[in-house]
């Protein structure tokens, strides 16, 4: 049997924090329990098919720079090889899940029917390899943005013919995900947005997008797919303005179109920063409504204004992220941490794929341990407790239970006078945070 990663002995082992072995975990111990759940259960790490196996180091200034042994033969031969490489990689890494776009795993054919046949053939092989290896599908999605037919959008296209094409492709992508026992299905609005308002009926395009999502909800029910539907916000790129701008925008779009109950959010770190938010802001907005469904774990470069999709290594960021995840009831439930991340163009060796994922998994595992400490830390939590203590008073309770009136509050102020400005203790909290980060 051909092996694509002969230098790695399966599986990557946990050696603990004193190890200097780059092919070992120092923090990610799949079996270690934190707050009653193992690390494996908290994270449900997934490998992103498109970056890890289809990525070739190409950028705006140069073509592919990497040689990948699985990428040889006819398009269907290459697809089968790539699938085998994926399962070998996930197994050796110890990642329980993978994620794909329909067009990552199977090539587009000359006709729509041929594309569907290609997908069906590859899905049958994937089903077998999933069974053989135990690797599962975290989520599937449809690539409704690369083919030139989608230049003006898929669901939001001004041409209804393109809308129908996108809907038909979406149907097959959902069915492929269902067939493979996918635990979620992601909608990332690739070109659902606009380049200029001069040619765009914004309101109509919103209605169209809602119609596409409603059709997907109907089809999900029809075929009995139990996976969670997720929307992944992004503010721009490839379009100047993407409609799923950020989490707050998506939640309000879903509410306005009667779709709120059927979707959760897939938060991607680099999309958050492109929207002018922090990663933890987007996670917090979603978790506040128990809508944090899954995470695309990566990081951007704040000096660059585009989606660099780098592997996460920033411990401050993984810690603040894990503080939010730990506080959402049930954590991510059916979701997980998908490394929607790629090695830099200069990291062209297949071994770099291992280093990248191991580093990312360790960064999040360490973040989880520190987040747990912070959330259990008395001095830290007392500051926040004190900050909101007045809301536990009779007055606070009355307001929150909807029993107050502006007249009653006026009477209160006339009696109580001027409130005393309280310190927010930001710097003190930062001291506590860093003390625990180093522990
Ligand atoms: C694009 C992006 C996508 C989605 C899946 O920025 O993040 O890869 O995660 O379509
Ligand atoms: Co993503």
How many separate domains make up the residues?
2
Strand percent estimate: 5-15%
The radius of gyration over CA amounts to 24 Å
**What is bound: which ligands?**
D-xylulose, cobalt (II) ion
CATH architecture term of the largest domain: Alpha-Beta Barrel
Strands, helices and their partners?
Layout: E1 13-14, E2 24-25, E3 33-34, E4 37-38, H1 39-43, E5 45-48, H2 49-52, H3 75-93, E6 97-101, H4 102-105, H5 112-133, E7 136-141, H6 160-179, E8 184-187, E9 193-194, H7 202-223, E10 228-231, E11 241-242, H8 247-256, E12 263-268, H9 269-274, H10 279-287, E13 292-296, H11 315-327, E14 337-339, H12 350-376, H13 378-387, H14 394-400, H15 406-416, H16 426-437
Parallel strand pairs: 1-2, 5-6, 5-14, 6-7, 7-8, 8-10, 10-12, 12-13, 13-14
Antiparallel strand pairs: 3-4, 9-11
The chain binds D-xylulose and cobalt (II) ion.
Short key terms for the protein model shown above:
binds D-xylulose, TIM Barrel, 11% strand, 16 helices, binds cobalt (II) ion, two-stranded parallel sheet
């Amino acid at each position: 049997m051909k092996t694509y990663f002969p230098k790695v002995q399966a599986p990557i082992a946990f050696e603990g924090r004193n190890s200097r072995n780059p092919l070992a975990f120092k923090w990610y111990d799949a079996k270690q329990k934190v707050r009653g759940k193992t690390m494996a259960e908290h994270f449900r790490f997934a490998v992103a098919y498109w970056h890890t196996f289809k990525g070739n180091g190409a950028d705006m200034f140069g073509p592919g720079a990497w040689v990948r042994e699985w990428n040889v033969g006819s398009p269907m031969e290459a697809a089968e090889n790539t699938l085998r490489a994926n399962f070998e990689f996930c197994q050796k890494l110890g990642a329980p899940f993978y994620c794909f776009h329909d067009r990552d795993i199977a090539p587009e054919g000359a006709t729509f029917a041929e594309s569907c046949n290609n997908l069906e053939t590859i899905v049958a092989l994937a089903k077998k390899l999933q069974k053989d290896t135990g690797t599962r599908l975290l989520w599937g999605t449809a690539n409704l943005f690369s083919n030139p037919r989608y230049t003006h959008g898929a669901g939001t296209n001004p041409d209804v013919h393109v809308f129908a094409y996108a809907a038909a492709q979406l149907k097959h992508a959902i069915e492929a995900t269902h067939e493979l026992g996918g635990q979620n299905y992601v909608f990332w609005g690739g070109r659902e947005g606009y380049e200029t308002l001069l040619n765009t009926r914004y309101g109509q395009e919103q209605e169209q997008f809602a119609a596409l999502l409603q059709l997907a909800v109907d089809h999900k029910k029809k075929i009995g797919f139990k996976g969670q539907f997720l929307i992944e916000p992004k503010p721009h790129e490839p379009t100047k303005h993407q409609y799923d701008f950020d989490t707050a925008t998506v939640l309000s779009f879903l509410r306005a179109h009667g779709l709120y109950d059927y979707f959760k959010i897939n938060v991607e770190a680099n999309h958050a920063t492109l929207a002018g938010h922090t990663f933890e802001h987007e996670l917090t907005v979603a978790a506040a409504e128990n809508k944090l469904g899954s995470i695309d774990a990566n990081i951007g470069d704040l000096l660059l204004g585009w989606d660099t999709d780098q592997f996460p290594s920033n411990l401050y960021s993984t810690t603040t992220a894990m503080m939010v995840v730990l506080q959402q009831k049930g954590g991510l439930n059916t979701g997980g941490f998908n490394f929607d991340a790629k090695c830099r163009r200069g990291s062209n060796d297949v071994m770099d794929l291992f280093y990248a994922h191991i580093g990312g998994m360790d960064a999040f595992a360490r973040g989880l341990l520190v987040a747990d400490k912070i959330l259990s830390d008395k001095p830290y939590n007392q500051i926040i407790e004190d900050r909101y203590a007045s809301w536990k008073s009779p007055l606070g309770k009355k307001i929150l239970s909807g029993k107050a009136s502006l007249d009653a509050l006026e009477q209160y102020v006339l009696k109580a006078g001027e409130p005393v400005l309280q310190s927010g203790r930001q710097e003190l909290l930062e001291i506590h945070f860093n003390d625990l980060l180093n522990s």
